[in-house]
Amino acid sequence: MSLPLDIVIIWHMHQPYYKDPLKGEYALPWTYLHGIKDYFDMPAIVEDTPGARAVFNLVPSLIEQLLDYANGTAVDPFLLKGMADPADLDEEDRIFLLENFFSANRSRMIEPSQRYLELLYMAGEGKPASAKDRVRHFTDQDLRDLQVWFFLAWTGEAARRRYPAFGELLAKGDKFTTADKELLFATQREVLQATIPLYKRLHEEGRIELSVTPYYHPILPLLCDIRMAQTAMPRVTLPEARFRHPEDARAQIRRGIAYFKEVFGFTPQGMWPSEGSVSNETLGIITDCGIKWVATDEEILSKSLEGGLGEHHERLYRPWRFACPQGEVHTFFRDHQLSDLIGFTYSQWDAGRAANDLCGRLHSIRNRVGAEGRVVPIILDGENAWEYYPANAYDFLQQMYRGIANSHDLNLTTCSDVIRSSNFEGRLHHIFPGSWINGNYGIWIGHPEENLAWDLIAKARETAIISNPLVAAVLESGEVPVDPTTELICRSLYAAEGSDWFWWYGDDHFSPHSDRFDRLFRQHLMNVYRLLAQDPPRELLEPIKKKSPAGQVREPAAFIDPEIDGRISNYFEWLAAGLYDLTRQGSAMHSSDRMLQSFYYGFNKTMLFFRIDGIQELSRLLRDADVINLHLIYDREYRLPMQLRGDEGLLQVRENSVWVPTRGHCRWKISRICEISVPLESIRLAPKSKLFASITLVRDNEEIGRWPTDAPLMLYYAGPEIEVDNWLI
After folding, report:
1. Omega before 708 cis (within 30°)?
2. Which pLDDT score is estimated for 625?
3. pLDDT tens-digit readout, 21-47
4. Whole-number Å distance between alpha carbons of 102 and 482
5. Buried b (16+ CB within 10 A) or exposed e, 595-609
6. Could you say which residues of the chain have pLDDT below 70?
7. How far apart are CA 23 and CA 29, in angstroms?
8. How far is residue 390's CA from residue 388's CA, in Å, rounded to a whole number?
9. Which of 49, 121, 271, 682 has its CA 20 to 30 A from that of 502?
10. What pLDDT is recorded for position 587?
11. Helix 60-70 vs helix 246-264: angle between axes, to the nearest 10 degrees?
């Protein structure tokens, strides 16, 4: 009888440390919201599904926040304003509700409720500055319904099935009372109180394995030696200060393990290093701290092995051992494609079709590389993808687990079980230093904003060591001090080392809350100076995050080659593209003025690429007869008219006020998003030139939308030299 192929699914559960050290309150509510939706739902779905098994990697600073909410000790302005009687709210608080309580996926979380959608329309569909104008139209009953619907919409599907109160509120739908709201929050508190015990019980039953991450989710290799970034990124610009503190990496690991053991009662065997970031030195420290297995990305393995992953990726599907002076640690490498399919693609498919496709791909891997000694690791965030799925992915995840568990050729298992049964002797004596993104550290270092943040950490750390000998001794040893002030200083420094702050610095990611992340980072460091009884340096009083002009988020960083399928096929497709935030560009003339959200642009040697994102799926926003025009201006004015029912056409050029077809054959696809390819030769852009772009929407022969309203977007075309001039994030 042939052996089955081992399948390991690792869900990484993580949120930034949102608790403001100066105010003692939460700056953003995402730990609470994902707590009532995903952190409970994910283990509950495993429990609801016979044969399901998974690994859950829990970040200690997330556990700390979840317990804070579960114990009722968290001070969260979102929660307090949600619980407040609308009659007691002043105008500023009422505006706050309108500006923040529609922060939910529109198609999956708002539109299923007629009342919630009605409130969104009343609030102006989130149009900037509309809340101040519209708030006077909201009665106390409207605001109470909004309070209930925001938190009710964030409640997970598994939680709804287990707690009847949620079903009762969903069925009622509107005209909620104070008692209804009290029932909602009391039941959500029960969900939060049940979450950590659920993980613990499922681990004890062998249904799941629990693993850990360093306490505040830092990029370990950069803590050990910031110059490590140059190995993966030879052209990177490093911060001025030489940051080399492997003792901080060790302390973050030890503290994470100790807190995990305090909460769950056992020492974890495994670790997903923050952002999958690894290096020889960090794996040595991890091994020395007693961890038996780690996981990272397939690109790290590809760069670590001479000859890469092999013709059929056969080298990827092994539980490799990393050998170092401290011992050996098993190392799993995530299958990039399978992980991204779950994270970005399957949410648009029927649940059964998606689960069958995944299982089919797993069977195909088994047929190609065999099963003996093989393991396929699927690793991704355990909270962020599910709001794009119907029913918070309950049906998809159940069918995925069942499809794998019920197959005689597949074995759904855990990392520790694989290690116990594995006879594979393959060893790595060197690991390429990098992370799960592009196999390097570009998201977290190299941009002036990121480098300034590193320098500010280095300065605060040095000040603490010079000013307080006890802090110096504790930082050197990594031990937990008895003195509470010393502990708070060390915790503030460790919190500032977390990866999340750097994620939002630079040009590679955009968030409407980036200013709050910036403020939180600086306040952790200001807390160090406050506890040392010193004034913080002026640099900490000024924002690090710089505002881009007119909605510009970033320019292109490297060639891109996206698949023109109208979907986000994988995380990396548009990561190096330029980006404009259309919501900060002015918009259109009528009710469609909030229809479009983002505009991406990039190129390779032969094609220009564009991507248009709506505030929800474009295929739902547009009618069949609607025409979206992409306007481009270079030496002449060009236009590409696009419709839902088509996917290719000729670029047009304006001649004597008439649109004439060119020979430029373009492709597009409008589905969840709109993706477009335009041949470079049809415009003949010169390197280091400027191209101007705008978008119009025509309905019933009338232009009802234009982005931007005034001047077009300026797009910089670097040409082929972009691969030399820029170092990709």
Report:
1. yes
2. 92
3. 888 999 999 999 999 999 999 999 999
4. 44
5. bbebbbbbbbeebbb
6. 1, 126-129, 547-550, 584-594, 710, 723-729
7. 15
8. 7
9. 271
10. 36
11. 40
Residue 568: the pLDDT is 87
**How much is the pLDDT for 22?**
85
Written as six digits, the tokens of 324 are 């170092």
Backbone angles phi, psi at 474, to 5 degrees: -70, -45
Q: Tell me if 224 sits within 8 A of 278, measured CB to CB.
A: no
Our CA angle for 419, 344, 333, nearest 5°, is: 20
Distance CA 101, CA 444 (A): 31
Would the pTM of this model clear 0.90, i.e. be above it?
no
**265 closest CA partner among 221, 200, 220, 218:** 200
State CA 702 to chain mean position distance. Answer: 38
Collapsing DSSP to helix, strand or coil, 5 comes out as strand
Alpha helices in 532-639, H assignment, sequence order: 618-621
Helix/strand/coil for 650 = strand
Residue with tokens 């089919």: 360
Contact 238, 230 (CB under 8 A): yes
Note whether 603 and 559 are within 8 A (CB). Answer: yes
Q: How many CA atoms lie within 13 A of 547 on its CB side?
A: 8
Exposure letters 320-334 (e unless 16+ CB within 10 A, then b)? bbbebeeeebbbbbb
**Distance (Å, whole) CA 565 – CA 686:** 28
- Site of tokens 């909030």: 594
Element (H, E) at 599: strand 596-603
* 293, 417 contact by CB (below 8 A): no
Counting other chains too, the contacts that 364-369 makes at CB distance below 8 Å and 24 or more residues apart are 365/5, 365/313, 365/317, 366/4, 366/5, 366/409, 366/410, 368/312, 368/314, 369/312, 369/313, 369/314, 369/317
Closest by CA position to 622, among listed 586, 639, 601, 646: 646
Rounded to whole angstroms, how far apart are CA atoms 716 and 467?
48
Query: CA distances (Å), 533 to each of 226, 332, 421, 463, 528, in order?
Result: 29, 46, 56, 11, 9
Structural Rg of the chain based on CA atoms: 26
- Separation CA 696–CA 189 (nearest Å): 47
Distances (CA, A) of 221 to 59, 244, 276, 498: 18, 9, 10, 12
Spatial distance between the Cα atoms of 553 and 713, rounded to a whole number of angstroms: 12
For helices 394-405 and 351-369, what crossing angle results, to 10°?
A: 30
178-204 helix and 246-264 helix, angle to the nearest 10 degrees: 100
What are the tokens at 275?
A: 């952002």
For tokens 């901080």, the residue is: 248
CB atoms within 10 A of CB 12: 24
Angle (CA) 160 165 168, round 5°: 95
* pLDDT, position 314: 92
Please identify which residue in the block is written with the tokens 């230093």. 433
Amino acid identity for residue 196 in this structure: I
Read off the pLDDT of residues 371-382 as tens digits, 9 standing for 90 and up. Answer: 999 999 999 999
What residue has token string 């970031």? 277
Please name the residue ranges forming H helices in 558-715: 618-621
Give first-to-last CA distance, the chain, whole Å: 48
8-state DSSP, 633: E
Task: Look at residues 710, 509, 707, 709 and name the one whose alpha carbon lies nearest to residue 614.
Answer: 707
Alpha carbon distance 701, 366 (integer Å): 54
Sign of the Cα torsion 551, 553, 556, 561 reads: negative
pLDDT at 589: 33
User: Any bridge partners for residue 376, and if so which?
Assistant: 7
